[in-house]
Give the backbone structure.
Amino acid sequence: MNIAPRLDTRVLLIFALPLAAFLLRLGGAPLFDVDEGAFSEATREMFERGDFLSTWLNDKPRFDKPILIYWLQAASYWCFGSILSIEWVFRLPSALAAVAWCYAIWHFARPRFGPNTALAALAVAATSVGPFAIGRAATADALLNLLLALSLFDAWRYLEPGHGRRASLLRCYAWIGLGALTKGPIALLVPGAVTLLYCASRKDWRTWLRALSDPYGWLIFALITVPWYVTALAIHGQDFIDGFFFKHNVQRFTGTLEGHAGSLFYYIIAVPILLLPWTGPLFVSLRNIRADSANRDGQHAASGLRRYLWIWAGFVVAFFSLSGTKLPHYALYGATPLFLLIAVHRDELRKPLVHLAPPTALLALLIGLPMLGAVFSTSETVGNVYYRALLAEATLRAGAGYYAICGGALLIWLLILFAAREKSTLWNRLIFAACLQTAVLALAFMPWLGAMLQGPVKEAALFMRSRAEPAVLWNLRTPSASVYCDAITPSRAPEEGEIAITRLDRLPEQGFEVLFQRAGVAVVRRTAGAEHQ
């Protein structure tokens, strides 16, 4: 008599996980540089310049990404800028995209794998470290992941045996178009390559070519993408082609951009970390690649979908492993199928130690991180003077609340781990660990990390905002300072009558007066007669 209400409550709690994971204390940490600061400042400058067709960063054209995420951030800024914190405003589009991403996974899985597997996949997506990070960041990545998932889900609905629905194909073109308006050619490459490889595995070239040559699909794609790309070309000319297509797309693959290099095995290491605490179930799923990918007479739809998911994940890892520029979040373009496959194979989990050790270790590590940061701050082998000064803030920024949340979560987890091991399944304990991990990251870790690394920059920028003098950035790449100053802050040495936010370790010994300093960050003013640096 009492079982159904408990089950219904549990289902509702899991279904609400994405909302809690991506909205809980969303504005708890300052904007992180460089990426969050750059996206947010470029959006803020749209309002200052009155230009909503191109993006600028501190009065210089910004060609890193297309326009869609900036428009969404601008809409959030316009609607909520006066009632929410600046961090909430600029992160909200990513958070809502991540929430929609989780529910899209659930919606796709439910008719194909059943309601329980769909709910399990939603839980994995909402509580993995990687989605948590990008879903709470004011960048384009959460939106792109949503659009890639939607495009490949609709591509499967078109390829699915016995279906081939035209509406699914046309929606796929629409999602790809929006993806191209979010991050460029990668939105075409991933769906195109995955569907090609899948059709090749079935020796069904005709279906792929028919989908590729659909005129109405390309018309939808063109209507979404062409107006802005033509406008950007008209505004910036060859600079747009060189900056966006060649530098931020071709050069990003063929060379190392902004120092983001890595070995061929970079993503082999990155993926298990990005999927914490689901690392153990990931390896269980990997053992099933051959069985999942095999042709099975009479079960073509089921086996075909699993093969499709493995091709999707495998292509992303292989492609970006060959790229010259490597960043962890690139692997998340292939994480959606892994969420589904982990859920599919959840009943095959054995050896509790293998699966429960990662979340236990992570919760324990989070308690000691502030002390670890303080230790590293005294070691000359770690970073430089500036970063050691930031690490010295580690224990100062933690506070009793940090240790109470982290310690309390670990204690609760240990009680569940040992006291309830006979009463709950291994999968249920993992879900509980994942919920605890997400709560600790949102309530304690991210605010602490932001306060340590970005707190000095934010405080210095707010100090500059209170001053009457014009401000610049000097030897410090922190575009978030411009957001907090609510003003364009060019990157150059200060002239007489200007103040600058800079790094103390890069400040000349003479000629400047320090007006404010915190950790390694300072606000300075040129003294009369000082030579230009």
About this structure: The first strand starts at residue 56 and ends at 57. Strands lie at 56-57, 60-61, 471-474, 499-503, 512-518, 521-526. Residues 258 and 413 are 40 Å apart (CA to CA). The first helix runs from residue 3 to 15.
